[in-house]
Design goal:
It holds the Pfam family LRR_8. Helices cover 25% and strands 17% of the residues. By secondary structure, it is of the alpha/beta class. The radius of gyration is 39 Å and the shape is extended.
Length: 728
């Protein structure tokens, strides 16, 4: 039995080694490596720097080792979701500096380590949901993820968020927290994030919801709250928060409301003055409209401009009240969607109060013609331009048309997917109607019931066998999925631009169907005939013009002039000279790098070791590291009694000690010529100085300067003169 036991241990170890050495067959010679759903217990070996995408999802991997991904240095996408991962070595992702997406969702991670993400500098998308961790630790696991764009975390055990958990994240496009059992939230925990475009949070606690909203008022643009059971909350959602707020849209999904809370939430949300859009999707309303209208009205007008209610379940919808008294809360609304919610009418009195509404969507409800006649009564919806009544129970096209004639501003009408069956010969329509959707309405033919003002007509998926309407303004015609055997005539629709006639029964074409302007008589512009060629030529021309301008700018030093002018204008705003108490140096020294040996070993030693010593400012030694060089120069000149120029052929030929140092001349000579001391290290002709330094050329022609002599006796005299000039 001992031999058998040893054999089993060796076999197990050998099996594990073989598994570790087994490569993924789809990784050979490709940048994309798909190893998903292969029953792998380990990350396969042989991963190279060629791989950019590695899919290991839906396997049985339990542990990620340090060496598993060490060679995959060019990996952009790593998918590890739906495994059994419970442990990760701290440096497992160390070599993945180019990784952009990491999915560790639906595993068995009981904690999150900041070390895992410490070297993922390029990471944009991180998915951590569906694990077993209860919190994010004492600090932030994400402090190194400066480029993070989307983060999805949380699970059914996730219960605590602490201050500092999100430090390091400043801007994020989408943040999703699954916190159905989130019970502890430290106020301020999400305040470190400066901007969130869209945040989704699954939450049940109303207290946690209120605290999170207060933290997000200045950062989130769209907040989506899921699974919450809203109860009465007396505290303000904004409390002592300062304006302006950033939140624009609030969505409730899979939420549960009561009549009492509806009243309270309407009042509370008015305090968020930036809120413009409200959504309720797949929600349940446990009530019948007995809202506290007095409390709602007394809290002031609503600033919300768009409301969407989609698939809301009202348990006693047939007993729902008319919401009388809500008029002041809706007269500023511009867009309203109530879809898939079993709506069968809107009371006439309420409909008249939507005075600013431009867009109304009632698709997939229970509207019938009699109720529609009451919903669109006289003087109701006075500004409405777009109306969607698709997927209702309308039966009469004539009655529908008569109802919408009461909407004088109506432009777009969608009444598709209603079972009209028949179409009358004559109908009355709004005079401005331009778009009409009659698709899937079971109409067998088209008559003069169709308004002649239309620009877009959709009659797809009907039983049409011909089309012969006179529609002089029509631009788009959709006839897909009918029974047409011939094309529509061109003469009745002269302005047609787009025609869709797929899935019909076309089998022949007559000469009359193609009558119109002859191809030979049409004269199209060059742009219409060769659009791509013309665009390419324009791009090439623009590129050549830019290239010529760059070349000319380089030749004539345009960039230099612009930079110096900008720096000079900035300097003009400063005082001409610093107060005596701010003078730190006797002289600022401007010199060529090629003359640094004489300046630093001869002149500096002579002057700084004199009695009394002179204080010199050298760019190598005294400039502030990290500060813009022009700012360094300006500050050094202003803090110096004199400016000393060491001129030589090197000084001239080295682009004047780089263009940035030449700013010293630009400012100095504009202000005070007496502050300049010129030292000629070697003979130099003024005509050798570039013309753009005209002031320096003029000074060399009009002002005395010191020349460095070759003899020692003359050098003593030179130093005396220089020291005297510095003291003056």
């Amino acid at each position: 039995w001992r031999v058998w036991a040893i054999y089993m241990v060796l076999a197990a170890n050998l099996s594990e080694e073989q598994a570790l050495m087994q490569p993924c067959p789809s990784c050979d010679a490709t940048q994309f490596c798909n190893c998903s759903s292969m029953g792998l217990d380990f990350i396969p070996s042989g991963l190279t720097s060629k791989i950019t995408t590695l899919n290991l999802a839906h396997n049985r991997i339990k542990h990620i080792r340090s060496q598993d991904l060490q060679q995959a240095v060019n990996l952009r996408v790593l998918l590890l979701q739906s495994n059994e991962i419970s442990s990760i070595d701290e440096d497992s992702f160390r070599s993945l500096g180019k990784l952009e997406l990491l999915d560790l969702s639906n595993n068995s991670l009981a904690h999150l380590s900041p070390a895992w993400f410490g070297h993922l500098f390029s990471l944009q998308h991180l998915r951590l949901q569906g694990n077993s961790y209860r919190d994010l630790g004492e600090s932030s696991p994400f402090s190194s993820l400066r480029n993070l764009s989307s983060l999805h975390l949380g699970n059914r055990w996730f219960s605590t968020i602490r201050q500092g958990n999100f430090e390091g994240i400043e801007l994020v496009d989408k943040l999703w927290i699954e916190g159905g059992n989130l019970s502890q939230y430290e106020p301020g925990s999400l305040k470190s994030i400066k901007k969130i475009n869209h945040m989704i949070i699954n939450i049940r606690s109303i207290k946690v919801f209120s605290a999170i909203v207060r933290d997000l008022l200045h950062s989130v643009i769209w907040l989506e709250v899921r699974e919450i059971k809203l109860e009465i909350e007396k505290k303000s959602l904004v409390q002592n928060s300062t304006l302006p707020f950033r939140i624009r849209k609030l969505t409730f999904k899979d939420a549960s409301f009561t009549d009492q809370y509806i009243s309270r939430i309407i009042v509370l949300l008015k305090e968020i003055t930036s809120l413009q859009e409200l959504e309720a999707i797949d929600c349940v309303l446990e009530g019948n409209g007995k809202w506290n209208i007095d409390e709602i009205v007394s809290s002031g007008r609503s600033l919300v401009e768009k409301v969407s209610v989609i698939n809301i379940m009202i348990l006693n919808f047939h007993l729902f009240l008319e919401l009388e008294g809500m008029e002041s809360q809706i007269n500023k609304l511009k867009a309203l969607t109530i879809a898939s919610s079993r709506v069968f009418m809107v009371p006439c009195k309420l409909a008249k109060q939507f005075s600013s509404l431009l867009y109304l969507d009632f698709h997939d409800n229970l509207l019938v013609n009699n109720r529609l006649d009451e919903t669109i009564c006289k003087d109701s919806w006075p500004s409405l331009q777009t109306l969607n009544l698709s997927q209702n129970s309308l039966k009469s096209l004539k009655q529908t048309a008569n109802s919408v004639t009461r909407l004088p501003e109506l432009i777009n009408l969608d009444i598709s997917q209603n079972n009209f069956g028949e179409i009358p010969d004559v109908c009355a329509w709004p005079k401005n109607l331009k778009y009409l959707n009659l698709s899937s309405t079971q109409i067998p033919q088209l008559t003069t019931c169709i308004p002649p003002t239309l620009e877009v007509l959709d009659v797809s998926a009907n039983k049409l066998q011909e089309f012969g309407l006179q529609l002089p303004f029509l631009k788009e015609l959709y006839l897909t999925k009918n029974q047409l055997k011939t094309l529509p005539g061109a003469a009745p629709i002269p302005n047609l631009v787009a025609l869709s006639i797929r899935r019909n029964k076309l089998n022949s074409f007559s000469r009359e169907e193609f009558e119109g302007e002859q191809v030979g008589a049409v004269h199209l512009s060059l742009m219409e005939c060769h659009r791509s060629l013309v665009v390419s030529l324009i791009c090439i021309l623009v590129f050549l013009v830019i290239l010529v301008l760059v070349a000319l700018g380089y030749k004539y030093h345009v960039v230099w002039y612009l930079r110096m002018t900008w720096a000079w204008l900035q300097a003009k705003r400063k005082p001409k000279r610093a107060p005596p108490k701010d003078i730190c140096y006797d002289a600022f020294v401007s010199y060529s790098e090629n003359d640094s040996e004489w300046v630093e070993n001869t002149m500096v030693r002579e002057l700084e070791q004199a009695c009394p010593p002179f204080r010199l400012c050298l760019h190598k030694r005294d400039f502030v590291p990290g500060k813009w060089i022009v700012d360094n120069i300006i500050d050094s000149i202003e803090k110096s009694h004199k400016t000393l120029f060491v001129l030589s052929e090197h000084f001239v030929q080295s682009e004047w000690c780089k263009y940035e140092l030449d700013f010293s001349h630009f400012r100095l000579f504009d202000e005070n010529n007496d502050a300049a001391i010129l030292v000629l290290l070697e003979p130099i002709q003024s005509k050798a100085i570039p013309k753009r330094f005209c002031k320096l050329r003029k000074i060399m022609n009009t002002k005395t300067y010191l020349e460095w002599p070759p003899g020692e006796e003359q050098q003593e005299r030179f130093w005396e003169n220089l020291k005297g000039a510095l003291k003056s």
